[in-house]
């Protein structure tokens, strides 16, 4: 028997934001879709009457009090900043995406008392009801989405977002680096970070482009992305390496990287961009980005940093 999501009663100010932003005449029901990481709130599906949208997603972020939170102060501040960034993205950047890099359309994105709230299009109702399946074929539309997103924001500074996107870049993960026991990785970690930061071609990266953050159409040919807490500046290879890390064979990985660059060339056609130079630089940096994520795992989840990860770090180090 399927388990129903728990019904919730929205606070008065949350309900008012939903009604005002959607033009609905009433809220029929609300149910929790999932809790946010580490007790910071929840996502709820809200059913409406009298609105063009029958349902919306409410992301209600309520950071726990200092005495109740887990993890370090640095972790807590990083999470808080991540929600500020997500609200900023939906407030400005989301409107600049299109069907090739589809995101949920925002009805409202604002700070609330002690937290933040987002009222977003329900992507399941908008034609993206499926979630990720295992297998390289299911990642093809994801790399196409990333190519379109990277092309859209190529060369732009992320003024209201993370200066450096992703949740694992070295400057914000010194605690994890301090727990790393692999001497070779400790030695090469700063060089990996410098190489990525020195990229001539930069864009906005999604920053958490794992398969679980993509919603798929019924035929799995189209995707929309969610969770923009770590969107910011950087080399596009950070997203690609993260998406593919450890989940596909080397043969499939190479094919998906090729798919990405084919899509990126199509997106950049007719633009005043040296696409050949961009591709040459980013192909060179792909193994660096892959090794850089392995560096994060080595300190955050040592069991995930296996012989394959060590081999990729050595491979990247030789190219620096």
Summarize the structure.
With 320 residues, this protein is an alpha+beta fold. Helices cover 41% and strands 17% of the residues.
Which helices and strands, and how do they pair?
Elements: H1 12-22, E1 26-35, E2 41-49, E3 55-61, H2 73-93, E4 102-103, E5 106-112, E6 115-121, H3 140-152, H4 174-178, H5 183-197, E7 203-205, E8 214-216, E9 223-225, E10 232-234, H6 237-244, H7 250-268, H8 275-300, H9 307-318
Parallel strand pairs: 4-9
Antiparallel strand pairs: 1-2, 2-3, 3-6, 5-6, 7-10, 8-9
Helix pairs in contact: 3-7, 5-8, 5-9, 6-8, 8-9
Describe it for me?
The protein folds into two domains: 12-121, Phosphorylase Kinase, domain 1, CATH 3.30.200.20; 136-318, Aminoglycoside phosphotransferase (APH), C-terminal lobe (Aminoglycoside 3'-phosphotransferase, Chain: A, domain 2, Alpha-Beta Complex), CATH 3.90.1200. With 320 residues, it is α+β, with helices and mostly antiparallel strands. The protein starts with 11 loop residues before the first helix and ends with a helix. The protein has helices at residues 12-22, 73-93, 140-152, 174-178, 183-197, 237-244, 250-268, 275-300, 307-318; strands at 26-35, 41-49, 55-61, 102-103, 106-112, 115-121, 203-205, 214-216, 223-225, 232-234. The chain is globular.
């Amino acid at each position: 028997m399927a388990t129903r999501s728990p019904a919730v009663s929205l606070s008065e100010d949350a309900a008012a934001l939903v009604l005002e932003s959607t033009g609905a005449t009433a809220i029929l029901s609300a149910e929790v879709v999932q809790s946010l990481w580490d007790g910071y709130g929840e996502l709820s599906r809200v059913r409406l009457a009298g609105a063009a949208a029958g349902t919306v997603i409410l992301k209600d972020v309520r950071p726990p009090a200092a005495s109740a939170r887990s993890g370090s102060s640095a972790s807590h501040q990083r999470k808080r900043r991540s929600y500020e960034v997500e609200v900023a993205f939906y407030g400005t950047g989301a409107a600049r995406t299109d069907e090739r890099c589809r995101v949920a359309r925002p009805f409202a994105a604002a700070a609330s008392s002690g937290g933040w709230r987002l009222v977003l299009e329900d992507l399941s109702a908008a034609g993206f009801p499926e979630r990720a399946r295992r297998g390289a074929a299911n990642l093809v539309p994801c790399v196409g989405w990333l190519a379109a997103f990277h092309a859209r924001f190529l060369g732009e500074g992320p003024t209201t977002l993370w200066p450096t996107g992703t949740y694992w870049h070295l400057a914000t993960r010194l605690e994890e680096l301090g727990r790393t026991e692999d001497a070779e990785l400790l030695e090469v970690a700063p060089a990996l970070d410098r190489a990525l930061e020195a990229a001539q071609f930069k864009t906005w990266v999604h920053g958490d482009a794992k398969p679980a953050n993509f919603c798929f159409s019924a035929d799995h040919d189209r995707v929309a992305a969610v969770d923009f807490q770590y969107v910011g500046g950087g080399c596009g290879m950070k997203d690609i390496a993260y998406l593919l890390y450890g989940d596909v064979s080397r043969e499939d990985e190479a094919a998906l990287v090729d798919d990405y660059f084919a899509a990126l060339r199509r997106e950049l056609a007719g633009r005043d961009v040296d696409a050949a130079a961009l591709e040459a630089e980013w192909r060179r940096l792909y193994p660096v980005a892959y090794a850089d994520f392995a560096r994060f795992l080595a300190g955050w989840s040592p069991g995930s940093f296996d012989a394959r990860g060590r081999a990729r770090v050595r491979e990247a180090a030789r190219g620096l």
